[in-house]
Design brief:
The chain is α+β, with helices and mostly antiparallel strands. It has helices at 10-20, 36-43, 55-73, 122-129, 171-187; strands at residues 27-30, 47-50, 78-83, 87-92, 96-102, 106-111, 114-118, 134-138, 141-144, 148-152, 155-158, 163-165. The termini are far apart.
Length: 188
Amino acid sequence: MDIILQTENGIDIGTQLRKLNAFTYIIYITNYKQYHETAHNNVHSFAFLTKPISKKIIYKQLNDILIYESQNNDPLYIARFITYEQGLTEFNIDDIYFFEYIKKRYVKICSKSGDYHFNEKIGNIDIDMASYNFFMPHQSFVVNLKYVKDIKNYELLMTNGIRIPLSQKRAVLFKNALNNYLEKMLIL
């Protein structure tokens, strides 16, 4: 929402929306930086972006909302991403094999239902998915430990047949994470 509209004020509309639904996510996109504090402190906006805005920034904010929402509603099973193929796409976390960073431009999700692509940095995916038993074995991948079938030299064999590189620097950390995951699964 913008701050200055044709007949109304975006701050007033945001205040009205907040009264109707306290859980509405409001993102302001405007040229008027002086309203930043009011938007956050009075309306409790999710974000305040200054024009000009790229699609990448919008998608990032929308994806942040989806991640935040999934963590609040169903943190154990659902991940939501805005993919190129289908827009808002929900995944059962157990259905995701791995994430791959492609040419430092976008992330590919390799899942049981196919491959999907979206804008994000792989480091953010690593952080967001760590609590769901995902680990980064290489600077371009974040894998679901559930689907690691074997480790040979510096390569992971996934249960879906795909081979993923294991960096020498991360090999010990990865093996420890995998062992911890397997021990936890034996206890359950």
